[in-house]
Give the backbone structure.
Amino acid sequence: SPIQTTATDSYGKWGFEIVYAQAIRVTIYAKFPGDPDFIGASTDRYGVGVGMLTETWQVSESAHDGLSAEEREEFDTTIADPTIGHSPHRHLFHYFSNVVLPSKCVIKSAYMIVYYHGKSNRGATTKIFADDQPRPPVPTNYFDHMRRTRTTNNVPWERPWPDSRGWLRSPDIKVIIQELVDKYSYSDGAPISILWDDYTDYDWTRIYHYDHAPEYAPKLEITYTPAPHVLTVESTPSGVPVTLDGTPIGSTPVEAQVYE
């Protein structure tokens, strides 16, 4: 992506907005402190510029996907091919244990991806939420699962369901993931627990879980744009302080200085 620059007079600011780069080197040239006749800056960028990135995570343990059934208050994390819907209403969770997303990133799209195995009649009428807390633990019983605080945003996943088996993407759930990213940190990796709820009638939709076969476990796919970085170089008689995203990273009172 191009680096955008702005500049004013010799005591103004030189700003470099780095849309995204894997690596950046900035070389700052200035006359010695107290000499107002010349102040300037030049940049060299190294590495491949990246616009949008897509990452995929998959349920990785038997205990990380499961089913809760109302009325009998059942809870099962070993079922191989659960149904959502049915009677009593059945609700699923899919736990992705280490989702890594940069701070302040913009979510462009997000999908829960499941291996679809069939339906009754027209299939279930469902809604997708996420567990609304930082670093949620894995649900351990029916009440724990059903009493989790859901995100404000949810996405309906309703009929029609297909007639053939295979991998199936949910509707776009980016509003759910963006809500989480705006509230909690995923820069060092943190869990995201998708809560998939049934809410009407008795038709069902069947999918595969981890215990059918690990390769058929549910997935989470997220496409995002990293937040822009802003480098500011401000000339003063005593030097050239430099900040990156508002944080001081150095100062140069000499002829030239390199920041990488």
